[in-house]
Write a structure and sequence with these properties.
Elements lengths: L5 E5 L3 H13 L3 E5 L2 H11 L3 E4 L8 H9 L9 E5 L4 H10 L3 E4 L5 H12 L3
Helix pairs in contact: 2-3
Length: 126
């Protein structure tokens, strides 16, 4: 699909990257993956995905550092970001809801269908 929305998945867990590549690919997305924050940032700035799915707990460069660097860039300040993490953080969750800057999702609270719907909503805003 030539004009399929591009999703960048940044996570340090290869099985999760493989799962998202498979599932999102079947949903018609072009899927880019990065096994870590620094690589993810490089891919984001080069490829300009439509949506970024971002983990927080990663070695070397954690997700919040990636997020801050994205938001300092002219393109990156507007890209939709979905934080998908194992760490519950009520203040970040509330910040995301209140400002609309990002979605904050704790993995255990969402199933794959919910995550895919969020990505579709962000990639194809009405």
């Amino acid at each position: 699909m030539a004009n399929s929305p591009k999703v960048l998945v940044i996570d340090d867990e290869q099985p999760f990257l493989d799962l998202m590549t498979d599932k999102l690919g079947k949903e018609g997305f072009t899927v880019l993956t990065a096994n870590g924050g620094q690589i993810g940032l490089e891919v984001a700035f080069k490829e300009h995905p439509d949506v970024i799915l971002l983990d927080i707990l990663m070695p070397r460069m954690h997700g919040w550092e990636v997020y801050e660097k994205l938001r300092q860039d002219a393109w990156g300040k507007n890209v939709p970001v979905i934080i998908l993490t194992n760490v519950s953080n009520k203040s970040k969750e509330e910040q995301g809801k209140k400002t609309g800057e990002f979605d904050y999702c704790v993995k255990i609270n969402y199933n794959l269908a919910d995550i895919i719907k969020k990505i579709k909503d962000k990639a194809n805003p009405s």
